[in-house]
Amino acid sequence: QVQLVESGGGLVQAGGSLRLSCVVSGSRSSISNMGWYRQAPGKQRELVAIVTSGGSTNYADSVSGRFTISRDNAKTTVLLQMNSLKPEDTAVYYCYARTVTVYGGRDYWGQGTQVTVSS
Question: What is the DSSP letter of 15?
Answer without folding.
Answer: T
